[in-house]
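Hi R.,

Here's the chain you asked about this morning:
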Amino acid sequence: MGMITSGDLVNSNSYFLYEEDFYAPQRVPVVTLDDDDVNGVEVTFEKFYPISIFEKNIVTQADPNNYVFDSLNDMYKVQFPRQFYNYMNATEEEEKSSLLESYEPFLVSHFYEPAKKVAQLYKQKGSVGFKAADGKVIPLQTFDGEYIKSCSITHIDIPKVKKYSFYDYDPFNKDEIKDYLNEDFVLYYTYMFSYDMETILSIVGENNKYGFLSPNIIKILTTLGWTEKDNPSATPNVKYKVAEEVKISYDNYWDTLMKSSDHHDYYGFGSFADNLVCHPKAYAMTLIALSLMLGL
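And the predicted structure, written out as tokens:
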């Protein structure tokens, strides 16, 4: 379980693109399907996503009043050439080239230096946290000298884990659970130990009011706009409005996936109903949907 951001460090997209890493928002994909062509999955990029509410609440731990994205709120307005390619047939070189083409305008913009500072923070242990509505700063996962896509920033910090490849513990030793995990464990990037969640909860989260959801997780969710069901009066008075000037249409790619797979089983095992094999296009839509979730 983790949060979703609308951007990443540019060198985290499977390619080493620049000597100096920096933050950049994700490109907005527009997917077009050709039902008559098995390879007809076309993807168009022509704009970036704006900074997410989650990211807007990220501060430095050294100075909780320093919101790291304050100077990057308009970063999504940077324009790049319209990109168009076939998802089924695109090569690694084409993908790398399109990423470079979309990121190049940042290098000559006033966003470049602040975006580099974000990258530096994201690669320092104990550097940033999520500032909840009540002022509490909840440390976010960072590692010394490295940024790990889908692990860094999008999870609550495990204090003792300073490197992603961390093995200085016994995953089968139940007595060590309390030394490494706490009540926030469900929002860690890894559970670390070979025990079921109920067992871990009984050791480090038995006082959680909402079971697996710790007080810190509730603070994050209510700051993002959720209401605490059993205690609405305690929910912070946080108001958000739709940025109508951001012209990005909503597309549910899981719905598109299901339409493309029709009666087929997109996992590839054959439909239980008619034993038909998976349509290849369904695989592509599965990959696209997962890529969007993971920010690839």
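Helices lie at 53-56, 92-107, 112-122, 177-180, 197-204, 215-223, 253-261, 280-294.

Let me know if you need anything else.
M.
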